[in-house]
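My current task is to audit a protein record that another person submitted. Alongside the sequence sits a line of tokens, each denoting a local backbone shape. Please read both lines and tell me whether the tokens look consistent with the sequence. Do not assume that whoever made the record got everything right. Thanks in advance; the entry in question is below.
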Amino acid sequence: MPAIDMRNIVGKMDILFICLDALRYDVAIQEEAADTTRVLNSYGKWEKCQAPGNFTYPSHHAMFTGFLPCRYDIKNQADRELLFYPTAIGLRRKVPEGAYAFSGSTIMEGLAKDGYDTWCVGGVSFFDKRSDIGKVFSGYFQNSFWNPSFGCAVKESTKNQVDFILKRIASLSKDRKLFLYLNVDAIHYPNYFYLDGAAHDSPESHAAALRYVDGQLGRLFDAWKAYRENAFVICCSDHGTCYGEDGCQLHGINHPMVDTVPYKHFYLVSAGP
């Protein structure tokens, strides 16, 4: 992962955190190599990383406190490259070079104290505010949004999420910076309906879902560059998933297909006035 100095980002740019929920590393690099995810490819290669948890709930608790997926080859916690440093947790006496040191229990709380508006556009059921557990992550943000059309079982879920965001950013004031978290759940199960003729989920339908998502992210990025100023984007998976490897199914278990995830970060440069 390229070295990033968050001191040149926080307070100066919007921050987009896009989680491609359940995306497998092997499928991500397969589609990258085939050039079928041209939007994401245009912003650099995927980095092979360790997942912070083996399903959505633990992974997001880790990520929202600054512990993003870390390089696959690191052997020591001290070798993590932290973009966000939680000062209250006592990891080190000194803030790592280039990290954003935040106070409070989450990145969003720290950024809000530094003048950001914090938004969440949810996807999977852990963001569905109709349940008590679905209110936990949503409660970390000043503004959180979820409706059934964003859910996993809806084939157009990512389009619906992007449409929702675009309606709001077109008229949003640039006076305050925005931290937007987007949970993209199209790649999560079920995803068989993205592959013509498929009756069940598979690595092939998982890949087809990623290709669909790539096109929708293109719409989001183009609009962001048109309506907003420069932005820093974090794009990653929270965990992978299994489709029968070693007899394993889905996630919430430790398996290389679950524990290995793709990660990248990059800039969106505004098109200007």
